[in-house]
Write a structure and sequence with these properties.
Layout: H1 10-36, H2 43-47, H3 54-62, H4 64-87, H5 91-108, H6 130-143, H7 153-162
Helix pairs in contact: 1-4, 1-6, 4-5, 5-6
Length: 163
């Protein structure tokens, strides 16, 4: 499927790229802090899960080999998604991967009535929390891509057109 060229105004492009880089920084930072912490593991987060996917998250935490894979994928997924968004490199793949990761985070700890962490606290409110907002922002970046305009995807596209 050939992607249609979208002509953005300068201010639209500026804010879309700013949003992309800010989300990329957040992903990269989260991944790097987990990477440099030798004691970090997702086990506590997974065992604190609520909602209809609770048993799935518990099963991930319950097997040491699976947990090691989950931890590796989480850390390197965050780092690679972050770098992709910041650099504008493979932005479509990075955006889709970020959306999928945010869905996993959201469904692990959904801010719904009846769950212990559903009480209003910074960044987590009833139904809508900061994870869902970042997920929606990634959806916006998927619909309004910028990597081919400002990013390393531009160089890849140019090379593919000439090759």
């Amino acid at each position: 499927m050939k992607q249609k060229y979208i002509d953005y105004s300068k201010i639209q492009l500026f804010w879309l790229v700013t949003l992309r880089v800010a989300i990329g920084w957040h992903f990269l930072y989260e991944g790097l802090t987990k990477l440099i912490n030798p004691n970090w593991s997702s086990v506590g987060y997974l065992l604190d899960s609520e909602g209809f996917l609770r048993e799935f998250y518990f099963s991930l935490a319950g097997n040491p080999n699976t947990l090691a894979v989950v931890d590796f994928l989480n850390v390197w997924g965050l780092i690679l998604i972050g770098l992709g968004l910041i650099l504008g490199l493979f932005t479509r793949i990075s955006t889709i991967a970020g959306i999928l990761l945010m869905f996993l985070y959201y469904f692990s700890h959904p801010p719904c009535v009846g769950f212990k962490y559903a009480l209003p606290m910074e960044g987590s409110y009833l139904i809508v929390n900061k994870v869902l907002i970042e997920l929606f922002a990634l959806c916006l970046l998927f619909v309004f891509p910028t990597g081919k305009r400002i990013g390393l995807d531009r160089l890849i596209c140019r090379k593919n057109k000439n090759g």
